[in-house]
User: Fold this.
Amino acid sequence: MTGNSTLGIIGYGNMGSALGERWRSRSRIKVFEKDASRIAALAPETVAATLDALCAEAQTLILAVKPQDLDSVLTRIKGSVGHALVVSIAAGIPTAYLEKRLGPVRVVRAMPNLAVRVGKGTIALCKGAYARENDVAFMQELFALLGRTLVIEERLMDAVTAVSGSGPGFFFELVQQMPDAEWDAFARNSFIPSLTVCAQKAGFSAEQAGLLAAATAEGSIGLLRQTGMPAAALRDQVTSRGGTTEAGLKALRENGRLEEAVKAAVKRAGELART
Ligand SMILES: NC(=O)c1ccc[n+]([C@@H]2O[C@H](COP(=O)([O-])OP(=O)(O)OC[C@H]3O[C@@H](n4cnc5c(N)ncnc54)[C@H](OP(=O)(O)O)[C@@H]3O)[C@@H](O)[C@H]2O)c1
Assistant:
């Protein structure tokens, strides 16, 4: 699949490390991370000393830093991206923004969710103006190692952020008082049908909506079972201050309806998107 190509991961935090851990069984990875404690356990040959060294070696660059750290990374790599494929997982950063900052480079944008950590993620992908179809296919194959993938139009990225990105947070909120034995039936009979309707209202086809809702529920249950963490603790992990999940949870607590939660999260994603 990936031949001799090297995947360069910039930022090895929650997401970067979840991706790297899965991908390194199939591909050569190289990591640049500014916090030394996050890469202490990696083999030295996996670590790049500088961003320039990473860019010189990698044919694919994965941008896995927080959105607020992205601009400094873009400034640093602008002259050395070369012909690399640039893949961003940063929430709310459109492909056009990356192309504006980096020039006419091939960009793929992806929105994973927390369940990639247990191999049950939902990952939506879209392509920038200069990327080729086979760039998307290449990344879809890689992300498939971490869960279910879906190629979407970029205009639906805010919606997918609300549905599959924040969806686990809503699931955890709703099941926090529920015994383990009831999670699957709740998902099947209530959460998946409701989230499917929400996703359709947010712009997805019936087929996409069904896939997103089922994968989001499956990933949420996978996280609960495989981590053994309480639902409330997992919910807090997916809830960044001022983010889409927080906005959705507020609406969910106010009126108890998943549809209102998704609507509020879509709205917040739109407010956060950078132009
Ligand atoms: N977490 C999720 O569930 C999730 C879901 C979907 C998308 N995303 C996206 O994934 C991206 C990463 O999120 P995360 O939760 O993995 O963040 P994170 O845990 O904070 O990881 C980011 C890492 O990048 C490092 N870093 C910052 N600036 C850097 C630089 N210039 N060069 C190299 N490394 C640098 C950070 O170091 P310091 O801590 O020292 O700054 C940190 O270790 C974000 O853009 C987010 O929108 C996350």
About this structure: Residues 89 and 142 are 13 Å apart (CA to CA). The pocket of NAP is lined by residues 10-16, 32-35, 38, 64-67, 69, 72-73, 89-91, 111-114, 165, 238 (CB under 6 Å). The beta strands are 6-10, 28-32, 60-63, 85-88, 106-111, 121-127, 147-151.
